[in-house]
Amino acid sequence: MTLSILYRGTLSSCNYDCPYCPFAKRKDSRATLATDARQLTQFVQFIRQTPDVRFRLFFTPWGEALIRNYYRQSLVELSHYDNVEKVAIQTNLSCSLNWLKEAGRDKIALWSTYHPGQTNRDTFLAKCSKLDEMGIAYSVGIVGFKDTIDEIEAIRRLLPKERYVWVNALKKKEDYYTPEEKERLIAVDPYIPYNMIHHESKGRDCRTGHTVVSVDGNGNIYRCHFIKEKLGNLYEDDFRKILYPRVCTNPTCGCHIGYVHMDHLGLYDVYKGRELERIASSMNAVNLPEEVAISSAPVSILRS
Ligand code: SF4
Ligand code: SF4
Fold first, then answer.
1. CB of 261 sitting under 6 A from ligand 2
2. How many domains does one find in the chain?
3. How far apart are CA 33 and CA 98, in angstroms?
4. What share of the chain is helix, strand, coil (3-state, %, to 5)?
5. What pLDDT does residue 184 have?
6. Which CATH number characterizes residue 212's domain?
7. SS3 for 304?
8. Rounded CA separation 204/290 (Å)
9. Nearest to 194 by CA among 114, 59, 290
10. Is residue 299 assigned to a domain?
11. 90 Cα: distance to centroid of ligand 2 (angstroms)
12. Which of 70, 80, 111, 139 is the most exposed place for a label (fewest CB within 10 A)?
């Protein structure tokens, strides 16, 4: 059995100050960090003690986790377990990268977001070069504000051409982008049209709740981050008994970490096993399904 887990613990703080983010410069108390560390230790222990399942783990913290030593050490440890196929995390890449020398490089991966205004381009690119030297898998992404498009194109130009750059589209208002801006963004990220809409999801097959789940710091299991109906508890229930094929009960799904698991979109064929860390297997222009023809809808949240 293989199970993907999106883990989001108690941590909700960040060293960056992105103006649109609720976690910007937010600090956790010592007690909260201690709780978060204890919960993470319990999660790692659970993975170690469940050798009959192959895990694909993706950490999606509210805020930045890799500035915390206990996250770095846990990722290193998990990357050496035989039953862990992959361990990935969303990060702003502000931390030192030396800890990755200890990690299992064939298993660890980073979803890295570049935040212009919080770090400068050269500093971010130097981190990317170091990841390349170390042989660490990573994607680079950026939030697609209109006034950031020049910078998005610059980072695309300066990264190795085989490095996938994703863009999170703003869906705040109808026709936020002009046709020319859409074209420029698609030239950077051929899969951005999937991110420019809220996918109608109610009643559609989604792998979450079957082969993918979301788990919080207390071990509570949800099918995904967006449907808060508890399915059970990782540490108290036999999770194998609560997983089965399901359809979505939400009207729409607008974030990559959700819609990528919807069967009919066929995105597992695009990411070929790297859908968690969002590394597309090809950057060639794609023939988009009709429903992804660019449109607009009210927005979701923006973060790392
Ligand atoms: S968007 Fe990401 S990097 Fe920026 S403040 Fe929020 S959590 Fe931190
Ligand atoms: S489509 Fe999105 S909201 Fe619906 S179950 Fe899947 S991940 Fe959750």
1. yes
2. 1
3. 22
4. 30, 20, 45
5. 97
6. 3.20.20
7. coil
8. 16
9. 290
10. no
11. 19
12. 80
